[in-house]
Amino acid sequence: GRPAEEAAMFDAYLAVRPSDVLAEEARVGRAVAWERAGNVQAERSAWQELMRQNPTSPHSNRARQRRSELR
Question: Rounded to whole angstroms, how far apart are CA atoms 41 and 56?
């Protein structure tokens, strides 16, 4: 697929269902899509939002690692 389009689909989902049971996975998917697209700023922002919205996420370690790598 096209990573930027995938990220846009995750954005659309989160705009409608920001607290849904799958919202956390959508945030991870968006961050990974931006990583695949090579958009560092958008990826960093997506990981930050995941950590802000889902601080106890099992994906927190990955989010922190990627944010550190992106500095």
Answer: 23
Which residue, 67, 53, 43, is CA-closest to 19? 53
Rounded to whole angstroms, the Cα distance separating 44 from 66 reads: 8
How remote is the C-alpha of 47 from its chain's centroid?
5
Distance of CA 31 to the CA centre of its chain: 3
Helix ranges (H only) for the chain are 3-16, 23-37, 40-53, 60-69
The tens digit of pLDDT for each residue in 3-45 reads 999 999 999 999 999 999 999 999 999 999 999 999 999 999 9
